Amino acid sequence: MRHVAERLDATVARSVQDGPGGELIGLYLEKIEHCLDGLAPLETQAPERLSKAMRYSLLSPGKRTRALLTLLSVDYVKADVDAALVPACAVEMVHAASLALDDLPVMDDASLRRGRPTSHRIFGDDTAILSAVALMNDAFGHVAKASDIPEGTRLDIVEDLSGSIGLDGLVAGQEMDLHSTSSTSSMEHVELIHARKTGALFAACTKIGGRIGGLKGEPLANMAEFGMCLGLAFQTYDDLADVHSDEETAGKDVNNDANKETLVSILGRQEAERIADEHFERALSLIGSDGQESAPLIVFVHHLKDALKKRIDVKR
After folding, report:
1. N or C: which end of the chain has fewer CB atoms below 10 A?
2. Residue 119 contacts residue 103 (beta carbons within 8 Å)
3. pTM of the full predicted structure?
4. Domain containing 122 — which CATH number?
5. Is residue 145 a contact partner of residue 85, using CB atoms and an 8 Å limit?
6. At 117, which helix (H) or strand (E)?
7. Residue 205: its H or E element
8. In the chain, how many domains are there?
9. For 193-212, how does the pLDDT look when each residue is reduced to its tens digit (9 = 90+)?
10. Rounded distance between C-alpha atoms, residue 84 and residue 68, angstroms
């Protein structure tokens, strides 16, 4: 299970190895890595600098939370996980693209991401931007060609993915995050930023999983809300880590949010953590009451919560 440890926080890796559903989660991570490698351009593909930048961002050692969440959602609704691999990896391509853009000097001006120099530090701002655009564009192309999924479902997935990016998604969330001030921010405003910046893509993951399983109506809406709650919790813990973790543990720059309004700055550590945990509880309440409490998806949510808490124990 060494490959799992390289992709997940150490706490999660131990739980994945020893806990229920661990072998399946490890298998899904292997499938994701193999699929991502196949979807990424070869380094020798012209223009080579652009191809190398795309591979650098996409294949850097991340936890693959969003792709894994998509596959586990498909598993939860008892659908074909292999058919969902390409959409799951398309979500990861969108996420990798967003990180390359977020890290730029004109945005968060980050130097470290996933324990390595950020894309623009290696390839320059221009190529980092172009590689992000290419990754996002290719994500939609790969979904459109996913022949194992019915055409109508593919169209719905494209719509879900598009919605998670634009004015109701991560682009709007980043814009709001960059330009919020103490005079305009409140708990409600920060949570709206979180819903768009992070929650929307998480919701797309779980909704895509539900769609591939044929869910409609309220069950599909519940899957989407489940993902949104996870995203809200995840982002609040990310803000907590910015203050209460270090670069080695976080794998990226910390104290980047010193001039931003976050739930941590507005409410303090204890209350922000309480709200994040409430989002986790709400997420589990949406899917954990139908006899599947030991399903790998639910097991993973508990792993994720534990790992996020470990990140902020560094400076407790």
Report:
1. C
2. yes
3. 0.89
4. 1.10.600.10
5. no
6. strand 116-117
7. helix 200-212
8. 1
9. 999 999 999 999 999 999 99
10. 11
